[in-house]
């Protein structure tokens, strides 16, 4: 089994990325420089619900989350109709043919820590039982943890696995979280990140730009607070209005407007300028949303062109990630 020698993000490697002229601490480049083989994240759907939808906290869910509640991506084998084994094996088989050597299993749709610790452990043990699986990424909410879950995850780290939590943060502004009907607090996010850091669990926060009523200052504060917490990585997205959501109702009433492409590019640059240079950036767009369920924005969300435009804007401004981070 592969052993994760250092479960901390290496500042030296990130420095080497900037030294080579990159303006963003891109996770893909970091991966290439730290792993002696190609790694791919395999998404799996283990059928988890969400406490914000199943009645544990609420039944409405976040205002931007589709009511159907299942993935809005179309990976052929990431489907809870299939067993977990089938989803993993089929995807390993597929990506091995494409030259990928090692895998991280990404428990993606729903809240993947919303269950009894012993049941969660069974699923995670199964995923880690494949010889080419080097770790897990677990998509969840900041309030869906307890000591037993942290203990199980820490135990995997002690065995040499790389464990990431993909944490739905969205914003560090409580008023925004309340408007979004997140049903958790900023303190949940702070405490979860701190506990993960203490135990060597890597955290990738998901943040949305262009949320209703958020000011430029609110967004920049989110960048600064998460940087101070030494979050390991971020995925940054524009808010997308999807059919059959509360947000869609608000949108059609004319009470919310999505960012246009130029505004988004500019905001991402501002956000990154105020983010620590040592936070890895995993994504800067959300490109898996099928066009037939997307209401707004109309512009294409493809990742690479957006990354290129952001880099171009940085060059124009002569700035880069972290330039204004104190
Ligand atoms: S926490 Fe995630 S899955 Fe649950 S309602 Fe909100 S966006 Fe949807």
UniProtKB/TrEMBL annotation:
Keyword tags: 4Fe-4S, Iron, Iron-sulfur, Metal-binding, S-adenosyl-L-methionine
The UniProt record lists the keyword Oxidoreductase: no
SUPFAM superfamilies in the cross-refs: Radical SAM enzymes
GO function term, MF aspect, one: metal ion binding
Domain Radical SAM core positions: 34-291
InterPro entries assigned: ELP3, Elp3/MiaA/NifB-like_rSAM, Radical_SAM_C, rSAM, rSAM_horseshoe, rSAM_sf, YhcC-like
Cofactor: [4Fe-4S] cluster
PANTHER family the UniProt entry points to: HISTONE ACETYLTRANSFERASE-RELATED, PROTEIN YHCC
NCBIfam families listed in its UniProt record: TIGR01212 family radical SAM protein
Name of the protein this chain belongs to: TIGR01212 family radical SAM protein
